[in-house]
User: What shape does this take?
Amino acid sequence: MNNGNIPVFLVEGETLPEVWEKAILKTWNEGAQVKTEYDKPGDSPSRDCTMIMVCQNPFKEPRIHRCFPAGLDTLEIYRQEVVDGIHDHWINPAEHKWTYTYHERIFSYKIEGKVINQINYIIDKLSKTSYSRRAQAITWNVGYDPQTYDPPCLQRIWFRMLENENKELVLNMNTNWRSRDGYKAAFMNIFALTDLQRIVADKISKNINKKVIVGRYTDIADSFHIYGSYYKEFEGFMKTLEKRSFEERTWDSEYAEPIFEEAREKLRKETK
Assistant: This one.
């Protein structure tokens, strides 16, 4: 029975595919049934919840879930889209093209006639004060985004460092989302953003001449959902979970690397 409260779930695990899979199953089995603004006639209501995912070791293998609904080449292209901005030039609202990319909002946030690289600020801030609570980047543009058809789902990224028992610095990262397609978007989001976490750790390490370890990743989504429009496709995902072991449902990065390299070569040719 729905009591009018959005359910709140916490899932934890060691690896990205483990945590993503747990979140999907929890949402499917226990999420509330809610309509969406994208529903077409005949669509079932979505399964929805507020989801908190904690990945204790985001670079522990296996790092890739075989059942995320896209190809490995697409995963690498998306990673570069987020961390390198390879598709920032597609932003052109006047021609009804993209209104933003996460990279553009994080690395080139525009306000009061200025362009601010928020990641550079974060790196500088934590290089000087590792325990600062102010190392964050935002995406939301309050004067523009509320009126758009597809405003940013990612809202905020927050970093902080602590020392472990060996006196090594550990970079923790949180991301906050207003809305999230749990099945079709969340895994790719997490894969790309944890790579950004790695990059920030590496740059801080170079600044302070001390090793910085990638720590836990926490992902908080106000609305984590599975759309009713693709329930039939999702049933195939559920059957795969029933038939295959966890090892058969995942890949190590080493397996994916040749396909990632093909995607990189494709991008190099496109830029030429």
